[in-house]
Amino acid sequence: MKNWKKIAACLAGAAFTFNVNAQETYTHAQSETSDYVWPTDEKVLQKIDQWQDLKFGVLFHWGLYSVPGLGESWQLCPEDVDWIRRKKPYYEVVDWYNGLKDELNPVDFNPEQWAEVMEDAGMKYMIFTTKHHDGFCMYDSKYTDFSITHGAFKNHPRKNVAYHVFDAFRQKNFMIGCYFSKPDWHCEWYWSPNLAPATRKENYHRELHPEWWKNYQQFTMNQLDELMSDYGKFDILWLDGGWVTGEEINLDAVLEKARVKNPGLISVDRTIRGKNENYQTPEGTIPETQLDIPWESCIPLTNNWGWTPKQKFKSAQKVINTLAEICAKGGCYALGVGPTPQGLIQEEVKIRLHEVGEWLQKNGKAIYATRNTPNYHSGNTWFTADKDGETLYAIYALPEGEDLPETIEWTGNLPAGKMKLLATNKRVSYKKDGNKVIVKLPKHLKNEPLAFEFKLKK
Questions:
Q1: For strand 18-20 and strand 56-60, is the pairing parallel, antiparallel, or unpaired?
Q2: What pTM value is reported for the model?
Q3: Which of 254, 287, 315, 458 is least surrounded, with the fewest CB atoms within 10 Å of its CB?
Q4: Measured between alpha carbons, how far is 129 from 284 in angstroms, rounded to an integer?
Q5: pLDDT 10s digits, 318-330
Q6: CA-CA distances (angstroms) from residue 20 to 8, 25, 31, 313?
């Protein structure tokens, strides 16, 4: 209770310090698909194929910003943009923010609960934020004291939280992803204390201070090496902060070493077109059309990536409909979740994700291990296919606020033989009218999205 009183006090202070409009914060644009470079490493290609089977994962944001409930660390960005408002001088905000190191004390930290909730939701892979742009490490880095292991949580037996989060999800056989920010606004070799920052980029000219940038390169490489070497096996290295490229931190050398211990490691150098962006990551959105390259939409469950006190949650139905569209277009869905300052997944998240998981238990055949089919969309219906291309699934994305109709219609993808409703595992009747399919729904179905299985007429 005392910790929650401290959090409430921080929230009160934050209210007059600045405001972040979460719906208009900075997001990474998707790379052009024509810029995609297929990996040549067979183990990476195999890992990507395995990842594409999983379809549904979670992206955790948890850090200093979780204490006052600010979403992410963007309040440290000095740029004059309309989605960051401060009512106190910038450096007062910076001092207050960095002081949250002594407030972040998640005494209820329970990574096993996180893993149980996400497994119950039907998720198959995870990505955890080890360091956001603020430079605060959620692991015990040997190269900085600006970490959770040197703050209020330092005496807790699970102070090295990233280690325990990754371990809890490995116990559930999740594919494991490590989020890491290439820019670090706390590192003296990125934002030199001798100069004021003006943008999110380094605050000096590299040509005038080549040794500073060289030191920053080494610092970043060291941190990535300790994560990839000391925190168990990884499947995905998810690199954020696209205004610093992988090339600028010698990512080739990092990956070469990392893949010795983590064969087939997927590199996600976000928005940096080229060989180290092994899958693309449209943020907060879904591509307009089907894509034939590996990609993932990362979309938070609320309007923020991290925990905030007054959140507007997407419904379970919204998540299911989004998952259906993403899968029909050939992608995976990383749902953003922010654990509470105390280190738990809150009840509102659990309720929604449990409902998603119940739907996937009945309809998962239409989602997991599916691939593209050419005619992938008709009205509110999305189509996926087994890898053989002969068995198709039609997912009716029931619009929110509407009741199931008596019949569902779509154009193309004409069935051959029987059609089964996955929710009941029973046959349903349908008829064909030219190029149109009309499915008659059984009575007394649960008012939710539906998925049908059938063979495609050749």
A1: unpaired
A2: 0.93
A3: 458
A4: 17
A5: 999 999 999 999 9
A6: 18, 8, 26, 18
